[in-house]
Amino acid sequence: MERINQMPVERTELAKAPNRPRQTQAERRAIAEKKLLAAALKLIAEKGLGRTTLAEIGEAAGYSRTLPAVYFRDRNGLIRAVWDYVSSHFQKKMEATGQRQAGLEAVLSVVDAYLTRSASDPFAFRATQVLLIEAFTATPDIRKSMATYNRESEKFLRKQISVGIERGEIRSDVDAKAQAILIMGALRGAITHWIIDPAIDLRLVRKEFLHSIRRSLAP
Length: 219
Description:
Helices cover 76% and strands 0% of the residues. It has 219 residues and is mainly alpha-helical. The longest helix has 28 residues, at 140-167. Residues 1-15 have low confidence and may be disordered.
């Protein structure tokens, strides 16, 4: 039987293989932090904050039980990191909406995205609701971060409502600030109901919510 020498083939394949640059420490740290935050969101959404431990987050992310303490230090550090993660994500979504649309359509787009993405990304929204409740007993710096996010969200809606009034799309007697707070509060209330009772048809809620805003703000 003819003996097949595989060594030249192996060397040729090795020679063809691209040299992959090794990840830097900063890149490895960023990947680990992203995985830890994703695991934290899922556990907080499923179990609540009080029953979620740093050790469990490490295991769920595929790392050691001690690694989360390196990144978050303690429970307050975890709350701050997770909140900063979800709030910055939602803030970017609103900014993107503002770049595409303005006025009444921007307001409707935010409502539509909020209720649509709740179903497609339930862990993030459930964890957000848990963290908002946590604000009642959180440390002052965490409450300040949450309050800042609330104000920024309200500011965006307030601006778009004002633009809608200027364009004649929204009636002139609407108080933009009060209306923005009402919309944010109603959205969070609807999501809370759905989280408690997933049998609620969120698509119908979204449809009626959009119609309601159009009717109530119409000039």
